[in-house]
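Contributing new records

If you add data, match the layout below exactly. Sequence lines come first and carry their own label; structure lines follow with theirs. Keep one chain per record. Anything else will be rejected by the validation script.
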Amino acid sequence: MSSPTPEQSGHNPMELGRRERQILSFVYRRGQATAAEVMEGIENPPSYSGVRAMLRILEEKGHLIHEKEGARYLYKPSVPVEDAGRSAMEYTISAFFDGSAEKAVAALLSGTESTFSSDELSRLAKLIDEARDAGI
């Protein structure tokens, strides 16, 4: 059985504050982190007690879980990064592109900051062909 996404458990990852997103992104990149590692790894961190409080809040909101490792807590994402990314993408498509994945992809392809290599475009074309063949 798969873990519920934050949205399924009533916790939308897009409704986090800037600092919460910063800390959660760091934990996702690392896979797990202690409060001390978060302090060392994020830009302009709050105090140590502030980091601990933010980690506790993210846990209360359902985004993190912890394991006790000796005298310290090791925080981990409560859902796999793929599920969290999918949830955030679904929210973004719904909120900003009228629920249209086509509009979202078109925005990515036409954006001046988005540059795709020839290999990336080939992989995207292959994924589109596979989706078409699967009747999606």
